[in-house]
Each structure stands twice: as C-alpha cells, then as structure tokens.
Amino acid sequence: MDHRMTRPAAMTQARPAQAGLLPKRLDRAVSWSDFRTAVRYDPANRMLVAVPAISAKRAEHPWLGEPTALHLRSADAEVFRREFEHGAVYWSERTGAHEVHGEIAARWIEVGGEASFLGLPTTDELRLEGYRTPGNGSAGGVAHFEGGTIAWTARHGATIVHGMVRDIWALLGWERSALGVPVSDAAVDATGVLRGCFEHGTIAWSPAGGPEITITASEASASSGAPGGADRGSLDEVPSGFAPHA
User: Name one Pfam family in it (predicted).
Assistant: First the structure.
C-alpha cells in the first residue's frame, strides 16, 4: 500500500459531497467573528488550531474545490469540519486534519460517520498501489479510520474491514497479500466469529480459536496482479495468539 496521501487514479472525477447523507448533528457554524474573538480572548481554543489545519489540508488537495459552508464545530467542541464541493476535511486534536471524499466518504457516512465505530479518519484517501486491473493500473483507494479501514475498488465498491480481520490483513501486506482486496464488509457470523471475505480467501477470528486464514486459489497473488504477494509460508507465520492493536 502506497502511503502517499494522494487521490486514487480511478477517482479523478470526484463527485460533489452528498449533503443529504450527512448524519444529523448538533453542530455550530464557526464565523470569522468567532475566530477573531478566540484570538483575542481565548488563545487555548481548539478553533485556533483546527481552522488553519483545515485550510492547509484544502491547499494540499485543491481538487476538493471551493467551500460550500462555514467551518462547523461539533456540539462537544472536539471535532471541526468543513465541507467542499468534492469532499470534506475533518479535524480533531487526536487525529489531525484529513479529507474524505467519493465512495469511501459515502460509505463512512452511511454507517454513521464520526459517531460510528469507525470514528474519525486518520489518513487521507490513499491509492491501492498493490491492486491493479488489466489496462487500468491502480484501480482503488483506501482510507484508515480510528476503528477500521474502508477500501474501495471499481469491482467491489466500498467495503469496511475492522477488528482483528483488519489487523491480520495489515500484517499480511494489505492488498499485496495473497488475499487481495476485501469484497464485503467484515462481520460477526451466527457462530460469533468475525469474518472478512477477500478476493482470494477469508480471514476469521474468534477469541477462542484465534486466526483462521483460508486461501481459495493457489495462485492468488499471481492472479491479483499484486507484486510481492504473500505466499502460503507467510500466512502460516501468524501465531494463534496474535492480537495486535490497530
């Protein structure tokens, strides 16, 4: 996975932010008067860090377009955001400023945005450099959040990977592993096992049984077109007691 904070090649035509999908919040708009007042009377106000950080992120990604609203502050004053023509930038003291846009933003908002188990973004959208389709080059993107990861590909859409499934996928090499990219959200099945389905196999995890990794194609890494994919030996190196933290 390429950790340069750039837009995925397959998403050069960013769609406008879908205001109708935004969850209901008790937010307050931040005016220029508020900012000047904080400068003069409240130098410890988070606004004095958040507003410049959001502006700097917008300058880093000019394709976000023009702002469509004032800066907004959450009811508990922990999170600031500003919406633009083609995405939004969120800031908090613990995560810094990061942009979200397109299909990944829509999926994140669908499950509840920053109020969901995913929390706030901890990276901008990154290219899935290890996932390629014939003739298209890099054809996907990924964004990491406090509680999980959302991966997007033209073939499978935006899918959520979280918990131990995300941690094991990361250990194996993300999309460059023999498993490839996720094809559906990781979820707890009827037996209480957290299971994630990928193009070439599955990752299952339970506290009692630990990790169980299944590869469904012997030439998975070759067929995915991912250079340096994990082989069977590297998969066997995951110990039964493996329990990293995201």
Answer: LGFP
**Could you list the residue range(s) of the whole structural domain that residue 46 is in?**
1-119
pLDDT greater than 60 at residue 4: no
Amino acid 137 reads G
Whether 103 maps to a domain, the answer reads: yes
Rounded CA gap, 212 and 8, in Å? 31
Query: CA neighbours within 13 Å on the CB side: how many for 217?
Result: 14
Task: Give per-residue pLDDT as tens, 178-189.
Answer: 999 999 999 999
Structural domains counted in the chain: 1
In a domain, 107, yes or no: yes
- Burial string for 75-111 (b: 16+ CB within 10 Å, else e) reads eeeebbbbbbebbbbbbbeebbbbbbbbbbbbbbbee
Residue 43 has pLDDT above 70, yes or no: no
The amino acid sitting at 103 is E
Judge whether 231 lies within some domain: no
Q: In the beta sheet, which residues pair with residue 133? A: 137
Model confidence pLDDT, tens digit, residues 192-203 = 999 999 999 999
Report the candidate in 122, 129, 148 with the shortest Cα–Cα distance to residue 7: 129
| CA distance linking residue 155 with residue 101, whole number of Å | 18
Q: How far is it, in rounded angstroms, from Cα 116 to Cα 161? A: 14
Rounded Cα gap, residues 153 and 171, in angstroms = 21
Whether 23 maps to a domain, the answer reads yes
